[in-house]
Design brief:
- By secondary structure, the protein is α/β, with parallel strands linked by helices.
- The chain has one domain: 3-Layer(aba) Sandwich (Trna Endonuclease, Chain: A, domain 1).
- 23% of the residues lie in helices and 26% in strands.
- The strands form three sheets. It has a five-stranded mixed beta sheet. Strands 1-3 form a two-stranded antiparallel ribbon. Strands 5-6 form a two-stranded antiparallel ribbon.
Length: 148
């Protein structure tokens, strides 16, 4: 597989979000996923303009030591089928002050769906056990921070 071009965009279908690959400027700050079967040469995949904007923010921020996308999974029980599924958060980052964050970027309208609530509860429990913080970033927070 060839490496995607910088900010190569996939075609958008009606009603779909912007998606493509982001080539980090500071490649040494980006940590690729380690426990998923995937091509290690790929750049981080974004599935919305909000994710792309946040990747750029992380890449350029002098407060971020490193960051990664869908780096690991968190098991959760789905309310749809009562089975265990795997939740991959959008971003994991570590700041230069030593704080670690697991981050989900989601439209505010989708935060309270039963499946997302199950994922987020599992992520919060994971973060408590691993001395991390779980953040859900919606358009509200992204606008407040000046990211979008």
């Amino acid at each position: 597989m060839t490496r995607p071009r910088y900010n190569q965009k996939r075609k958008r279908k009606k009603g779909k979000f912007l998606s493509g690959y982001y080539k980090p400027i500071n490649e040494d700050k980006y940590r690729q996923p380690i426990d998923r079967t995937m091509n290690k040469d790929l750049y981080p995949n974004y599935r919305s303009s909000w994710e792309l904007a946040f990747y750029k923010y992380l890449d350029h921020s002098d407060k971020v030591e490193y960051w990664g996308t869908e780096v690991f999974f968190i098991p959760y029980i789905s309310p749809k089928d009562n089975q265990i599924h795997r939740y991959f958060s959008d971003v994991m980052m570590k700041t230069k002050d030593g704080s670690t964050f697991v981050i989900e970027i989601k439209p505010k309208s989708q935060v309270n769906t039963p499946i997302n609530q199950a994922k987020f509860k599992a992520a919060e429990e994971y973060c408590k056990r691993n001395n991390s913080q779980f953040l859900i970033l919606t358009e509200v927070e992204l606008k407040q921070w000046g990211i979008i």
